[in-house]
Amino acid sequence: MVDRTESYIDANQQRFVEELKQYMRFPSVSAQRAHDKDTRACAEWVVAHLKGLGFDAGLVDVGGQPIVRALMKGKSSKRVMIYGHYDVQPEDPVAEWKTPPFEPTIRDGILYGRGATDDKGQLWAHVKAVESLLKTEGELPCEVLFLLEGEEESGGDALPRYIRQAKAELKPDAIVISDSTMYDANTPALTYGLRGLIAMEFTIRGPAADVHSGAYGGGIANPAMMTAQILAACVSRDGKVLVPHFYDDVVPLQDWERESFRKLNFNDQAMAKELNIPRPHGEAGYSTLERLWARPTFEVNGLFGGYQGQRSKTIIPAWATAKITCRLVSNQDPARVHKLVVEHIRSVCPDTVRIEINDFGTSPPVLFDVNDPTIRAAQEAMRKGFGRETVFIRCGGSIPVVSTFAEHLGCPVILMGFGLDSDGPHGPNEHFSLDSFVKGTKSAAHMLRMI
Ligand code: BES
Ligand code: MN
Ligand code: MN
């Protein structure tokens, strides 16, 4: 049977993509104050677009970047809340982009530009699904509430604060989020678990200024070496985090999960090839998928200090800094793990240097029940939209507000990702397959009908 909404989506694909390109031209980089105006302009543009579709839409200002809120009634009074984020990561390293990050460009059926997959393109699939239902059926099958934030990428808490304050009037029956991934380009997936995160940096300080390493080397602690030794005391050579009690609250993989991960037949060699590394690496005793999706980590994101110029310079640097994050899994409590990590770092830091630690926010892990009937309905919607069996996966990334949804809104959360890890989110040449965009739009339309 021909589905009129699907036909409308096919017929209007090009315009949908042109609009998405317009949306992507806003450099809505929430981490950088210089882009505050662009970020707000982007939110205003989305509001205007949703108003054009007939939504009761506006910006909610609770401090920080504005929240886009837009509501439309439908046939049933069931309310589906669609979350997304209109902010994006900084464009750097800018020299590595083949075409400029904020000038979206299509090459071989793939749309390139910052935000293509994370998260402008994925959100746009839902906006266009709504338009397509309205134009072909005259009204929406259920109520739709868009709630979009502008500080997901920069650890802001405007949306969590708003949720806590407005939960009595939000009252969704289901929450839908497309800000994660498919299993691979041919395998649509629903995500039932996201990892959490804690982020911090520590600085080791030695002498007041860089000093001659011949004059003082061997006589005083070297801050760069102390930083390396502290880090080495945090993770073993075979990938175990050495922070005492770090793993205490980790929910072990259930048998069905281990089995379902195994059936996905993850190809270690393919990943190694894609990333140009000799082979995967990580915690001993777990498969790569288990380590990516269901095990916590300790990572160094940045390491600096000392001489960075050409040739050699014989100094003992005055200081060195390490930026670190831990990915967490259910049921690790970010506050507790944060405390454990700080205590461990302090305890292994020798008293011949001084240490300073700065915190950069946390995000709790989430894990949902794959047997929830709403999640099963979404699985059927994805199967229809993509024309393929839809699998359940976990994802290694974090979406901080999801735990606030789960805690305060008490309804099922559907994570229907249309992206791929290989889309290059956060990196140069971020992209999104237009084929996934169209199939995602169809899936989103089916989903609103089936919930
Ligand atoms: N969309 C991602 C999260 C994601 C990535 C989920 C891949 C599933 C698969 C999100 O925009 C993101 O980048 N989150 C940050 C959160 C951090 C800045 C607090 C992350 O995971 O690093
Ligand atoms: Mn995202
Ligand atoms: Mn992101």
Account of the 3D structure:
The chain is of the alpha+beta class. It has two domains: 4-194 and 365-450, Zn peptidases (Aminopeptidase, 3-Layer(aba) Sandwich); 196-250 and 296-363, Alpha-Beta Plaits, CATH 3.30.70. 35% of the residues lie in helices and 22% in strands. The chain is built from 14 helices and 18 strands. It has helices at residues 4-11, 13-24, 36-52, 120-137, 158-170, 213-216, 223-232, 255-263, 268-275, 288-293, 334-348, 373-386, 401-409, 434-450, and strands at 56-60, 67-72, 79-85, 105-107, 110-112, 143-149, 174-177, 189-194, 196-205, 211-212, 299-305, 315-316, 319-328, 354-363, 366-367, 391-395, 413-417, 431-433. The strands form four sheets. Strands 1, 2, 3, 6, 7, 8, 15, 16 and 17 form a nine-stranded mixed β-sheet that branches. It has a four-stranded antiparallel β-sheet with strand order 11-13-9-14, with helices on one face. β4 (105-107) and β5 form a beta hairpin. α4 (120-137) crosses α14. The longest helix has 18 residues, at 120-137. 44% of the residues are buried. The mean pLDDT is 97. It binds ligand BES and manganese (II) ion (2 copies). One manganese (II) ion (MN) binds at residues 89, 118, 153, 425-426.
